[in-house]
Every structure is written in C-alpha cells, then in structure tokens.
Design a protein that fits this description.
By secondary structure, the protein is mainly alpha-helical. 48% of the residues lie in helices and 7% in strands. The protein has a domain of 63 residues.
Length: 151
C-alpha cells in the first residue's frame, strides 16, 4: 500500500488570498498518491506550487504548468457527463458539474457531520461571513421537501 499517512494539505489559498488547511480522506489520499506517482513524475523539474497540472505536451501549457479555470471547468463537466451516462436514475444526474457544486456538497455534508458547527464550517470553507455559513447549514429545497415527505 502506498505511503499516504499525511491527511492534510497546508496553506491552501482561496479567494482573497485566504489560507487554510484542507484535510483529505483515505480515498482522496490514495487517489492523490496515484496521481503524483503516475502523472506528476514527468514534471519533477517544474518549479510550481500548483498541485494539478496540464498535460506536458500541450502547446498552450503555461510555464508553471497550471490548469486554467476553463480547463478545470471542462474536466468537471466531462466527469459529470460520464457519471450521467452510467446512471439511469434522472434524480441522480449531476451534469453540468462545476467546481462550486463540489464545494457546496462538501459544505453541506460537513454541516451534517458536525451538527452545523459554524466555527468548523468557517475554518474549512474560509468564510468569515455568517451569511455564507447559513447557506450550508440549511438544506436545499429539494432535500428539505424530502425530509417532510419522510415524516
């Protein structure tokens, strides 16, 4: 088994250059270890702080190898389409998948797991405003309706 003991990435920069620590699950650590071993090994000479890089042979590749926001959106959109092609249930479709959708999913699940601990949500998401924290502690309308149906 790969050596994936470290459970966090430190000093992740978000909007407004806010920094926070990001913890990773075992599955995420294993996937990241695979990526670093198989994909990033080719880029050992590249000086960059970016974690995910564009393909080495791309003519439009930035000097530091960073993926553009457009590339990230395209990758997630494709993942969403692949998922939807394999899932027959229309309720479980996720396309179009966007980066912020992943953030909202993480935040909502974190709120569920922590009992809507506003302090923990603020730390993990980097929000200072209670207005934004409230978004994650209140379920989406569809989920709220499902709760009522189950009474």
């Amino acid at each position: 088994m790969k050596n994936v003991r470290r459970a966090r990435i430190q000093r992740v920069k978000g909007k407004g250059n806010t920094e926070r620590t990001v913890f990773l699950s075992v599955d995420a650590r294993l996937a990241l270890a695979d990526y670093l071993e198989k994909e990033r090994e080719q880029d050992v000479t590249l000086e960059t702080k970016a974690l995910f890089l564009s393909a080495k042979g791309l003519p439009a590749r930035k000097p530091d190898g960073r993926l553009s926001p457009r590339s990230i959106n395209g990758i997630l959109d494709q993942i969403g389409r692949w998922h939807d092609a394999e899932v027959p249930d229309p309720i479980r479709k996720i396309s179009p998948l966007r980066p912020h959708d992943l953030r909202h999913t993480f935040a909502f699940r974190l709120a569920q797991e922590t009992g809507a601990d506003a302090y923990e949500l603020e730390r993990r998401l980097g929000h200072r405003s209670q207005r934004y924290i409230q978004r994650y502690t209140n379920p989406p309308e569809e989920l709220a309706a499902q709760y009522v149906e189950e009474f």
